[in-house]
Every structure is written in structure tokens, then in C-alpha cells.
Amino acid sequence: MLNEQTCNEIAALRLYGMLQGFKDRLARPDHAELSHGEFTGLIVQDEKVHRENQRLKRLLKDAKLRVQVALEDVNHKHPRGLNKQVLLDLGSPQWIIQHKNVLLTGPTGIGKTFLACALGNMAARAGLTVLYLRAPRLFEFLLQARGQGTHLKALAKIAKVQLLILDDFLLTPPADAERKELLEIIEDRYGAGSTIITSQCPLDQWHEHIGDPTLADAILDRLFHNAFKIPLKGASFRSGRDSK
For tag attachment on the chain, is the N or C end more exposed, with fewer CB atoms within 10 Å? Predict the structure, then answer.
């Protein structure tokens, strides 16, 4: 009766990890010999783990990653110019804390999106906020937000996220309004967040493809500063059976 009452009170407090831990540990004969302090410590740890797992689920859901993969899934054997030391450096969230960017370029099918999403997964597991957007959808989203009167709110949301992944950048030359939107986003995030950009367009052609020289200078100056520049090359993964 006392245990049932305790369970009800724990549930009322919404300590669901502790509740499950309390039930599970009461059913284990080897835990009968634990002191009150030891038992309490274990169920408090159960609650902590539960909350961490729930937070990770929320972070991954909010990230909207195109593919759910981990850095451990990245294929190091495929010849594409991916430096192992650079990947090792990116395997720690320290570069995000330092507000560095990652610029991934290369032909279609080389694994740019896969790698970007793996880095996003790593960031979420480190407890950081992540948001994945394809560049064409980003500008559509902002155009729609402007029409709905929520444009500033949308920009604030993008600015606040700790890691922004902008995929398929410069598939087509941006319109004037899109260049200005991009500058606003990059300016808001400069020194405040990290951005991963993937593009089929080589870095040395970004200035030309962005179009307006003044806006291109401002955008690229902020993006390129203190950034990991990773040009990938080689055959498409889609032409074979290799994992990315």
C-alpha cells in the first residue's frame, strides 16, 4: 500500500524516470539490501537519464535532419578527399561552442548531406540546438513568413539555433531579396552560432554565383572567417553500394 502511494505521488510530480526506476528496482531482489541513501541515489539517476533522453528526442525532432545518421556511420574508405583529422576535430562540439562554420562542397552524391546530418546528430547528442533547412525551402519559408507577418519571428528562430545546417546552397543563383535575406541570417549568426553549408558549387565560385558583389563580399567574409572548408571529390555513392 505504501509503495503504491509513493508511486502515485511520484507520478503526480511528473518524475517519470524516477517512477519507472522505483518500480523496476523494487522488483529486483539484489536491490533489497541497498541502504535508503543508495536506493534514493539510483532512482534520482534514473530520473536524470530519463530527462536527458527526452531532451535528446526533442532536439532531434526539432532539428528536422534529412537523414538520421551518426559520425560513426561515415565511410572513411571511399576516396573523396575527406581528411580524417578534420573529421576528428569536428567530432567534438567545441567548434560549435567557438561559433565556427563548416563549408562542404562537392559533386552530387558524394555524401555532403549525409556528413552534415551526422554532424547535426553529434551536436544534438551534445545537448545543442540544431536546425536543418534546404536553401530553396529556407527562402520559401521566409517569403511565406513575411506574408503572414511572422518574418522577424522566423529570423529570430534561425538566429537563435546553435547549429544551422543549410543544404543545397546555390543550386540556382539567388534573387536580390534572397541575397538580402541570407545576409541578415549570416549577420545575425556571426559570432553567435555555427552554420554548416553544403553546395555543389566550388567555394571559389560562390562570389560569382551569389551575384551582387557588395552583398557577396559581406556574406562570404562572415562565412569564410574561421571556417572548416571541406571540398569533397570523387565518384557518387549512389553509383555503388558503399555506405556514406
Answer: N
